Each structure stands twice: as C-alpha cells, then as structure tokens.
Amino acid sequence: MFAGEAGTKSTAPALEHSTEDKIWVFLLSEAKEEVIFLFLDKLISETPELSQLTFSTSVDDAQFIILNARSEQWAWQSLRSTRSRAEHFLKPILVICETEWNWLADAVDEIIVSPVSRSNFVEKINHLSKLHNRLQQLDDLPKALGQTSMKKLLLLRHLFSRDPKTLLPQRNYRAKVGYTFSLVQLLLGFNASDEINFLGSLLEAQLLNARLLDKVNICPHCEHTQINFREVCPKCGSLNISDEPTIHHFRCANVGRESQYQQGMKLVCPKCSNELRHIGVDYDKPAEVIWCNNCSHNFSEPQLSCYCLACGATFGPEDAHIRSISEYSLSEAGYRAAEEGVLPGTGLMSILKKELGFYKNEVFAEYLRIEIARCRRYKYASTLANFKLKVAHEALEEELLKHSRKFRKDFAAILSQTYRTSDIFTDLSNGDILIIFTNTDSENSKIAFKRLAEKIKNHFDIELKLQYKLFDLRSVEDNIDDIWEKMK
Amino acid sequence: MIPEIFVNSWEYLLSLDQSGALRVFWFFILFDFPRYVITDIYLFIYEKWQELHRNPDGDFLLWLKYNPPLVSIIIPVLNEEETIGWTIRSLQEQTYRKLQLIIVDDGSTDGTAEICRRLEKQKNVVYLRFSERAGKSAVLNYGLKFAQGEFVVFVDSDTTFDRDAIYALLTTFADPEVGGVSGNLRPRNGDFNLLTKLQQIEYLFTISIGRRIRSRFGILPIISGAFGGFRRQLIGLESIGGHEPGPGNDSDLAIRVRKQGYKIAFQPEAMCLTNVPVKISNLIKQRSRWDRNMIKNRIRKHKDVFNPYSKNFKLIDVITFIDSLFYHVVLSFITAFYLIDIAINYHEVLVPLLFVNFCLYFLAGILELLVAVGLSKRPEDFKLILFLPLLNPFKIFLKFVRVKAYCQEFLFRYSNLDPFAPYKVRQRYIQW
Description:
Chain A is α+β, with helices and mostly antiparallel strands. In chain A, 37% of the residues lie in helices and 23% in strands. The two termini of chain A are 69 Å apart.
C-alpha cells in the first residue's frame, strides 16, 4: 500500500497554503488507524511543505478529510456520513484506496491509489489546499434557508469551488434509473431518480446547464429502469411465439408452417403427402411469419410488451416513461448564485410572497368576485390594483444582489409596515401583482403606493418609480371573467 | 400408312436370318444393345441389390451427421441477375447446414453486383468481385483462395438444388479413394418446348444412367461444372493449382484429380436443376464446345494418360479415356458410316429397315426409361415415354453436330478460339 518513500528527502513542489498556521486534517481509516496515521504522520514530519498539516480528532474542526478505504462499501458509508452534513459537504476530501471505484471521482476531490508516494501526496494536498482557500473566500451561506434551498446552494457551491466541476452520471444497474450521481446522492441521501428530479429543478431554475447523454425507459408505475421488453402474440398476448417460414406447396396449394411439413430431414406435404424436394419447383417460402404456439395465430410483426422486473407491472412500450440522463454544469446564473450564496427567486418576488402572503390566482379571483358583490350591495369602496412589479424590480434587484441579507430584512420590514393584513395579493404569469385593497377607495390606495416609495427612498436612497392601475370595484361594469381577462 | 409400315417392317424382319440381321442391324447389335440394354439391366439389378443390403452408417456418415465439416460452395457469376438469387436461396435451403457460400463475380455489368451485395449481408455468404472479366477458371480459383471448408463444391449460378443435394454429394466421400463427385443434373426448363423435352430425356439417360454406370466401373471422366464437389486439399492452389484456363476446365480438373490417384464418382441423389438451351442454334453451340473440349483434353492435353512410362499411368485411366473417346468420337463417325452403308446397300428396303431400327431404339429407350424411373423414384418421368420416339433421331442429329465439331477441332483447333475465356486470357494460356 505504501510507497515506502518515508525517510527520503522530498523533491515535491511546495504546498500552496493559506494564511493559516495550521491546517487541520481529519483522518478516518477502514484498516487500523494507527498504521496509516503513523505513516502519514511520518510523511508529514519529513516533508517541509506539509508542515502545516495537523491531525484533528474531530471532523467538525478539520479543514480537510482523509479517508483510507479498503472496501467500496466502507468508503461509501464514510462519505455518506460526512458529505450528507451541510457543514462538511464542501470540505475537501482525499481518499486513499487500493482500487478506484467508478463513482468515487465524482464524490471526492482527490484520490490516491496505493501505494502512496510523497510527491503524489503533496500534490493532492496542494490541490485540497487551493480548494480550501477558494471556499474561504466565499461568503457564508445564509442560515435561515429551507432545507431544499440549502442543499441546492451547497451543490452549486460545490460545483463552483471545484474548478468548476461537471456532474457526470455513473452507470449503476442497482439504481432505479440505471444511473446515479454519487455526489448528489451523498448530499441528499435520496434514491436515484430523486437525484435527477433534484437536478432537474436546478435546471428548470436555469442554475445548471445540461448536456444530454442518454435516455432511459422507466416503468410508469415504479419508475424503475429494469424493464424487460418482450415480443408477444398480438391476439392472445402469449410469449410462446416462434419465427417460422411459411411453405406454399405448388402441387396442392397447401400453405402452412415449415414445421408442419417437416418429417425428419425431409419436407412432406401434410395435405397430399408428396415430398417437397426442390425450392422454386415443388414449393416456395413466400413469407417469414411468426406463429403463436398458444392460439395458432400468425402475424408478421409481434406486439411489444414491457414487463417491469421491479414491480411486476405490464404495459405497452408507448406507456413507458422516458427519463433523460444528462451531465450538468453550472450556468451563468448558477455561478452567480453559488458565489453570492443566493438562489434567484429568493430575491424580490420571494420576499414579497413571503411577507405579504400571496394567494393562488383561482382563490384571488373568488375573493375578487365576493368583494365586487359586497361593494355593489353595501355601496362601499374597495380597489383593485394592477402593480407592474417589473419596473420596480430592476432598481431594487441590484440592491438585493449587493446587500442581499440586509436588504431582504429591511425590505420585508417596509412591506409589513405599508400593507395591511386585510389586503389580498396574487401574482400573474406576466410578473404583475394584483392587489385588492379592501374597504379602501382609489385615492387611499394610491397613498399606500406612495408610502412604499417614500420608505424605500428614505431607507435605500432609491428613487422608485411605481407603475400601477387602479379600479374602483363599486363601478366596475364588467363581469368577473371579463375583469380577469383584462387583468391578465 | 402406319399399319402398312408395321406390316412391311415385320415381314422384312422375319425375312432376315441371323447373319442378315447382323448385317443390317450391326450398329445396334454391336454397340447400342450392350451399351443400353445389357448395362442398364445390370445397373438396375446392382443398384437394387445395394439398396437391399445397405450397411448401417459408417464413421464417415456419423461424422457428417454429428460433427459436420464445413463445405465451401463457390458460385461464379457473370450477368446472372435473374438467377443468382434463386441459386443462393436453394443453397440456404439445404439440409446440410454447415456451408460457406462464396459468390465470385466476373465483372458483371447488370444488376448482379447489387443483388450479391444484398445477399452478402446474410451470414455465411461471401461476395468477391472482379471489376474486369477474368474468365471462369480465374474466378473459381479466386473463390478457392477464400474457401475454408474441408470440401469444395463448384456450382453454376443458374443452378438450383434439391434440399438434400449437398448432403448426398458429401456421402460419396465416405470412400476415401474418391477425390471428386459429380452431382446429377436435370433440366429445369424441360417443359419449355420439344427441344428441351428431348434434352430432358437425354440428360436422364446419359447423366442419370450413363454416369451411374461409369461411376460403378470407375471410368467416369468428368464432373460437371454445374455441380461437382472435391476434397479441398486435392485441388487447392498448393496442390494441383485449381482450375486451368480455357473451355473444358471442369473435365480437365476431374482428369487431374484422377491422375493424382483418386476416383471420380457420381452421386445420383445429389440432384440439381439447370437451364438447357431452348433454341437449336444455342444447343449446337453448346454441344460443339463440349465436343471440341473433349478432343482437346483427352487427345491433346492429357495424352500422357496413354503413356505407360508416365508417372501417373494407370490402366483404369486408359480405359476411361478409351471408353469416352470410343462412345463419343468413334461411334459418331461409325454412325455416319452406318447410315451411309445402309443408304447405299439397302436403299430398296431402307424404309422398313429404318423403321425396325426405330422400333429397336424405341424399345431400348423404354427399357432405359423404366430403369431410370425405377432408380430415381420419380414416377412422373415415365410421361417422357411420349417423346421417346423422337429421341433417336435427336441423337443422330447431335452426332452429326459432333462429327462437325470433331473435324473442326482435329483440323483447326477451334477450342482455342472459344470465348469461354476473355481475349486477354486466350492470348496467354497454353493452347493445346
């Protein structure tokens, strides 16, 4: 396993180290830890470039992690226990092993296949150090994030910090869709197909770019790729079919399966008992057809049927779902999100939605209908506002990017002070926001917008031009459907 | 008219004593009676005896069944787009499955190449092509280079085969002394017209019966190019060098195999169908070529067969040649002589004499047909009896064709002008 170079003078390149005096390394070994520990300790002590490396007893304090693995299972379990925790997911990991498994390169940062040589070790540690430095330069990720958003950011940041990295799928016959992304699996602890959904959501959010590598057919019931494609009789569905030529006997016009004519090595007509000696003279084979040995039906094309070996479902190939398998890399938006630690859509709109409580369009439409009816019946004023967020969005988005955490906090506070809990909000697909100001006439509704602009001006020193339209619900003539169409 | 000729002929026959009958019917009595009647009866008895006392399968036949050797089939093709597909199809129908099919295209200019390229996509089919015509011998030898089988079968590209033809051919190699086997031939287009019908009877008699007899006595000199098999190591390029250029390359190869000390056999069960000429002009060309080639091969090229001091001398080969030359060449001239003889000397009784001859040949023909049907187990062949009356006049006509061809060959060596081989090859090969 070991190169036995300990004790010889080093000619390896110098370790690129950070400003830290010590770099804490956590070592985990499948074999007796003392052995690898002693070896590495000796290696480190004899190599000036590695002088900063110090072994840590706790993985929480370590900046690097070294795993000494013998078996694939142990390596996987150890990686799972480290990478699955958010605080360790981004940590550089070096694995020393005897064989490199196909999923390993995706899951860790550096691999040394035994024997360990000094120069190789120094080189790998150098890379880990660079990686660590790059991570140190990035802002911390926000703590108040949902679990899914956090994992998304972690993955993006992992890719960003690793040069960047492309996520390649690995073939895995045990996986549901036949492929796994080991890094994502470690992060999420999900089964495969969930990894792909996860990556799909990042792709949809345009944070990743994808390059199609494969398409797999999966069972529509259990989403497993273990599908057995079978040819069956189109009439009775039996598997018991065989490909056989048809023989036409010229003498008596009998047409039948070749097996019906077979008598030992000879062909004898079952109808007239004459021997068939010479093709083209006594008989011909006009068609190669398929015969069902169950119902005696014959056909030229069998029916294709799919049988899922995982759940036992039977379905037609047209019903199989097709899952695309791609390799993923960071998009421009993904770069930005990774660097800044902010997912888009957690920007301005997300703040609005979170602070003001947006309703779904259908629910909002129902509220609108009720409010119109109430205004007309009880003759009081309510106002419907169509607020063009886009105009404000651009001015504020820059601020959001610059001072994301502080901005979010302050902006959220402004909104909660400006609007009432009785105001009803929704957003349209074109980015506009609809608001029902209950028991408020148009003039007072304008005041709400004016107040928002003033507060933003006071707080962020941004001259915000708000564009909006107001409709007095007492005087709206059209019915609710027409109004809705106009709003859209 | 007809009843009168019967009466007159019968009276004429009764009027002859023994010496008189011999004098007027000497040709039939001395040559055709032993040849057709006696040998046919012998053959029939012999073959039936063999059938009744057939031995169980020996080692060779068990080997063919359970550990079959590869057989390479070489199919030379030149502008045979209409037939090559059928040839391959019938070979793929064979009960003997372990085959390597090698199609060698001698520069076809019709759709043959396209068809062969499609056929090549099937497993065990190899397609080779010369962009320019090289001649049949070169094409066969080229195919031989690619042959991997223990046995090689040469076939024509307009020939189709009974399902068990290849297997039947191979069984003949159970005799280790057999170096080559001739398959049996029948016209495919026998029903086309009267000419093809007569050729159908002729093939039945001369090939099915005639070659059987010769094979039985070990004096078969020829293996048809349309369907014949050899042990590959005997004819390979490292031994006798395959085929030699020029017409008659098939009989030449058979003779060279004999010279190596091996037998040539005939397998009547290895049946193939081939096209025969439908026009008299084409028939004359074909038969003239065959006849000239016989002179070239048996009198000029391989005359060392007669030399008792030559390395390969064997008495059986001498007998083979004499038999072949006598019954084809000598008898053709004798036929002419006989006809002249009776025309001059018996002109006043010519009509009854000829009619009696006709009846004698007709009866001999019936016997031969019965033997042929009895041995081939194709009872439908008996319908050919309707055409038997015309067979002898047809044969006499062919004999005159032969005489002319022999004279051309003896005097002018016409075989050297045969376009069988392309001009560039004819200019260079040894002209015997």
